[in-house]
Specification:
single chain, Serine Threonine Protein Phosphatase 5, Tetratricopeptide repeat, 16 helices
């Protein structure tokens, strides 16, 4: 009961991230004393995920400590989940080689032992990176996995949203004819707090699809849903920056180039605080499209894309 109440306080924005981490340090200490190794690992892993967007070094340290416990006590599924979090953290921080390796380790383990929830979450981030890098082999593997497991996916707004983004990535590579999600099917995803790099990338991917279909009202409503969480302590600069990025894309689609430049520049500032290189490159490309990029911005964007091995058309 006490934990449920605490979780309600977190969701309600009444507890800061640092307060939550401090509380969980006590939980981990007590769980160690009681020999509840599953609780030790799960608590550390959830905390690592929560801070993966803006404190990647601290996130990795938590995961490394928890991994030792998981290995010592045979917690195999937790190992897959921790590699998933490593993939998310590396996706945001721009350490894509390590993120890809961690993601593929998680997928291999999850496929071998039918850890379907760990597999699908990891595919969300691995597919996003593979699409950006034009890695057809990984995208083909993902397409087969999603086709084989379609019947087990829950029809929740979050599930439809994230699976829709995967379909858009696979479709861009010519590997799927499925369409992206409709606004009505996924708008409720903003009824609760959201986080993780794969979610913010998916939010932008879906918004771009709607803009390409002329659904500007859907994008405006999407932005309104996102904005409700701007002041929540669990919303990161990556989340707020993604809102500004989508706002810039909408302004550009509407022909409001001045507004697009302002929003794209603001998004880049938010992403640099991470830093989140992939998202910085996205913002700078929109800034270029709006006629607001100088030589330094173009050089920065090109440097990021080279470092990530990105196909620029994916931004």
């Amino acid at each position: 009961m006490a934990e449920a109440l605490y979780n309600l306080l977190v969701e309600g924005g009444l507890v800061s991230v640092d307060e939550l981490l401090e509380r969980d340090r006590d939980v981990i200490r007590l769980a160690r004393e009681l020999g509840n190794w599953q609780r030790v690992v799960r608590t550390a892993r959830i905390d690592a995920a929560m801070i993966s967007e803006h404190r990647p070094a601290e996130s990795r340290a938590l995961l490394d400590e928890a991994s030792e416990v998981a290995e010592a006590h045979g917690l195999r599924e937790e190992t897959a989940w921790m590699d998933y979090v490593r993939a998310e953290a590396g996706f945001v921080s721009g350490e894509w080689v390590g993120a890809r390796e961690a993601g593929l380790r998680a997928i291999d383990l999850a496929e071998r032992y039918a850890y379907h929830r760990a597999a699908v979450r990891t595919w969300f981030v691995v597919v996003a990176m593979a699409r950006a890098q034009g890695d057809r082999g990984i995208l083909e593997h993902a397409g087969r996995w999603f086709d084989d497991h379609q019947s087990i996916f829950p029809p929740s707004p979050y599930g439809k949203f994230m699976h829709g983004a995967v379909n858009l990535h696979l479709g861009a590579a010519g590997l799927s004819s499925a369409s992206g999600p409709s606004f009505d099917d996924v708008s409720a995803v903003w009824d609760e707090t959201q986080g993780m790099g794969s979610v913010w990338d998916a939010a932008d991917t879906v918004a771009q699809a709607w803009l390409g279909q002329g659904q500007t009202d859907a994008v405006r409503d999407w932005l309104a849903g996102m904005a409700r969480w701007h002041t929540h302590p669990l919303t990161s600069d990556l989340g707020r920056g993604t809102h500004a990025l989508i706002s810039a894309r909408l302004a550009l689609a509407d022909g409001r180039r001045d507004s697009a430049r302002t929003a794209a520049a603001g998004a880049a500032v938010a992403f640099r605080r991470g830093p989140a290189p992939w998202w910085i490159a996205k913002a700078l490309r929109v800034l270029e499209a709006a006629g607001g990029a100088d030589e330094r911005s173009v050089a920065e964007r090109e440097t990021i894309e080279r470092a990530l091995g990105v196909d620029g058309t994916a931004t």
